[in-house]
């Protein structure tokens, strides 16, 4: 049985999600909390496998809780309506393992929880049409760009870009000079057919590089 802690300030949302998960044979909500401030105690007592955590809550938001308790929480899926597209990146930097929209189907919710409980990440389903439209380059990539795979080093750098590291920090982590990292970043942007780092991360997630 996959044990889930559910943290959301809206009682109706908690009730709805709990009711959906009660329909599955292998997932149960074992504890709930109304905000991040209440969540720590509930999590400590529940011995949970997965944490479902609302992004926006009073007193302590989901992302604030992730930052404060980094490394101490169960694998965490952030629940969001995507009012703020930057929540995707803030959550990734804070250690979230995935995102799900609150109006998700039972099938996708259950599959997402099972995937994260098994050690996978769940970022790609969060890339809604609205999010992609906000960041994608208007012109489609050329055939050459679509056919140019990322090298293993470029994939590594793209993952660090997704985590919010700048060129100097990436250089410090990996060893090459900052100028070399800058060249790698330029190559990544060209191969993905995008014009900035945010679009590169989104395209990388969409294509499965991250």
Overview of this protein structure:
With 210 residues, the chain is of the alpha/beta class. The chain has 2 domains: 125 residues, Response regulator (Rossmann fold, 3-Layer(aba) Sandwich); 74 residues, Arc Repressor Mutant, subunit A. Helix content is 50%, strand content 13%. The protein is built from 11 helices and 5 strands; from the N terminus they run βαβαβαβαβααααααα. It has a 5-stranded parallel beta sheet, sandwiched between helices. Helix 8 packs across helix 10, helix 8 crosses helix 11 and helix 10 crosses helix 11. It is elongated and about 50 Å long. The two termini are 29 Å apart. About 11% of the residues have low confidence.
Fold topology:
Elements: E1 2-7, H1 11-21, E2 27-33, H2 36-46, E3 50-54, H3 62-68, E4 76-80, H4 87-94, E5 98-101, H5 106-117, H6 129-135, H7 143-147, H8 152-162, H9 167-174, H10 178-192, H11 197-207
Parallel strand pairs: 1-2, 1-3, 3-4, 4-5
């Amino acid at each position: 049985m996959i044990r889930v802690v559910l943290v959301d300030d809206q009682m109706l949302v908690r009730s709805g999600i709990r009711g959906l998960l009660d329909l599955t044979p292998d997932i149960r909500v074992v504890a709930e909390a109304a905000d991040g401030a209440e969540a720590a105690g509930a999590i400590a007592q529940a011995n949970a496998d997965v944490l479902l955590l609302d992004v926006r809550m009073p007193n302590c938001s989901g992302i604030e809780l992730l930052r404060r308790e980094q490394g101490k929480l169960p694998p965490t899926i952030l629940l969001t309506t995507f009012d703020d597209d930057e929540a995707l990146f803030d959550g990734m930097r804070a250690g979230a393992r995935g995102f799900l929209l609150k109006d998700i189907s039972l099938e996708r919710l259950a599959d997402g929880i099972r995937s994260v409980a098994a050690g996978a990440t769940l970022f790609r389903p969060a890339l809604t049409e609205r999010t992609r439209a906000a960041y994608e380059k208007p012109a489609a990539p050329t055939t050459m760009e679509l056919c140019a795979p990322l090298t293993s080093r470029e994939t590594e750098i793209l993952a660090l870009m997704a985590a919010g590291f700048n060129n100097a920090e990436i250089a410090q982590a990996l060893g090459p000079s900052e100028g070399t990292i800058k060249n790698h970043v330029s190559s990544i942007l060209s191969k993905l057919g995008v014009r900035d780092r945010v679009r590169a991360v989104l395209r990388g997630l969409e294509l499965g590089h991250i």
